[in-house]
Specification:
The structure is a homodimer of 258-residue chains. Chain A has 258 residues and is α/β, with parallel strands linked by helices. An eight-stranded mixed beta sheet of chain A has the order 3-4-2-5-1-6-7-8, sandwiched between helices. The two termini of chain A are 13 Å apart. The model of chain A has no long low-confidence stretch (mean pLDDT 97). At the A-B interface, helix 2, helix 7 and helix 10 of A face helix 2, helix 7 and helix 10 of B. The complex binds adenosine-5'-triphosphate (2 copies) and magnesium ion (MG) (2 copies). The site of one magnesium ion has 4 residues of chain A, from helix 1.
């Protein structure tokens, strides 16, 4: 049975895609069979891994026309890592979900055969920067979720909202099993007081819910997607690869993936 | 007659809010009577200016219950700058818009008295990181729009999408007058090749559509919102204040606001 993990936060540009791609690669490197699903119409996870958007290659056909989702997974060049990428038309996914009877549990329905098929041990979902039906469906279908938060003030402000919304999905019975895996602090810049202050604040208020691993701000992480490479391929001996490797270990241990 | 300017981009974290707040402040300082409207349920523009979300204080009541929008504008501590802020419930704005007959022109209807009332010369709209009904309504109600783009690869990828969507609103007749004011390059880090490469690429492909002014990456812009201050109040003699002042001049000249 695979563990389904949403990477979510309605705040934009906080490292959701960068984390989805590099955490998936870290788990795969630790020999955890992993599937990454790009749920963002922008398709950043797809291109950051070096793959093209392909018509009919995304989750859209499964939701709209009940196509088989498992068949859309492609094996990537990275051992133990498969991808269900985006397509240009993915922008209409939100509208397709609205049309469905049981609009909150569409992803859950389509993910079930993937989760129970025995092929994957972890399924990561890269969510768009909003709390619309795509992210709600992702959270409703997940066992657990990671909130990435850049170490800046405006990102800290939005933290309460995503935790509240996920909590209400759980309490309302839409997904009683949903648990927070943790808050990941990203783009931590040790040279600035701001990062330290935000880190202190978050660790104080949400003690125990914040991953020990923090991801440093490094231009290597912003460069890697332009080559379609993970950080392990692009800058394997740098601080970002070390951080995502450590995160992989921390997540695998916390979720019993190894 | 006020010029309505959307600050839009579905890519998250590219400096939309930072630009909406500081460009509004720059125009106000140049004695252009300016109204800033926070259309993002996150309410970052409201808090970055130092104001609280107030129940009934946002555009939601106008769309949902046909309340008077002009009355919700508050005069800020900054001369020539007024604000219609966010409220917690603003998250339901997207659903309220879906319910309306003429769902693309709700903002246009409510903005008309503000634009024609003679009080404002410029109305800036801070949009959320998506191309849902909120951003579409904003673009459909605008004379012009600014796309902020952080100087990084993933942000460059999404540029085509926002330009295409705005172009299709114009061509489909939803807003025949909609013109691109320009692309604003933000978070430009002169120490990295990435920023230079992205700038070169964008200025080459979209010659003439990119503002001369570029906003440098500086932690001061990330710190200012935690004090609820514009960059002019927080770091008046730094490079970011100079850049946003120059942008204000460039925008005022391009749009004939002075
Ligand atoms: N630790 C880091 N250091 C430096 N740059 C980073 C880091 N993490 C991510 N980036 C860069 O910051 C930008 C935003 O990151 P990313 O796109 O992963 O965020 P996101 O939350 O997925 O954004 P969106 O809300 O648009 O989906 C990207 O250009 C990315 O390459
Ligand atoms: N030029 C800059 N230099 C450094 N930090 C910046 C700069 N511009 C914005 N920031 C910071 O980067 C983060 C993202 O900026 P901002 O919130 O304005 O982007 P946005 O596009 O409005 O995000 P969203 O998509 O969530 O609405 C914020 O923490 C902001 O303070
Ligand atoms: Mg993303
Ligand atoms: Mg914003």
């Amino acid at each position: 049975q695979a563990t389904i993990i949403s990477i979510a936060n309605q705040k934009g540009g906080v490292g959701k895609t960068t984390t989805a791609v590099n955490l998936a690669a870290a788990l795969a490197a630790a020999r955890v069979p992993t599937l990454l699903i790009d749920l963002d119409p922008q398709g950043n996870a797809t291109s950051a891994l070096g793959y093209e958007k392909k018509e009919g290659g995304s989750i859209l056909g499964a939701v709209r026309d009940a196509e088989d989702l498992a068949g859309k997974a492609i094996a990537t060049r990275i051992a133990n890592l498969s991808l269900i990428g985006a397509e240009t038309d993915l922008a209409s996914l939100e509208v397709e979900l609205q049309r469905k009877e049981n609009y909150l549990h569409q992803f859950k329905k389509h993910f079930a055969p993937l989760a129970q098929g025995g092929k994957y041990r972890a399924i990561l979902l890269d969510c768009p920067p909003s709390l619309g039906l795509i992210s709600m469906n992702a959270l409703a279908a997940s066992n657990t979720y990671i909130v990435t938060m850049q170490c800046e003030y405006l990102a800290m402000e939005g933290l309460g909202q995503i935790l509240k919304v996920a909590g209400s999905l759980k309490d309302a019975g839409a997904n009683p099993d949903l648990e927070l895996a943790g808050i990941l602090l990203t783009m931590y810049d040790a040279r600035t007081n701001l990062s330290r202050q935000v880190e202190d604040e978050v660790r104080k208020h949400l003690a125990g819910k914040v991953f020990k691993t923090t991801i440093p701000r490094t231009v290597r992480l912003a460069e890697a997607p332009s080559f379609g490479r993970t950080i392990f391929e692009y800058d394997p001996f740098g601080p970002a690869a070390a951080a995502y490797k450590a995160l992989g270990k921390e997540v695998a241990k916390a979720l019993g993936l190894k």
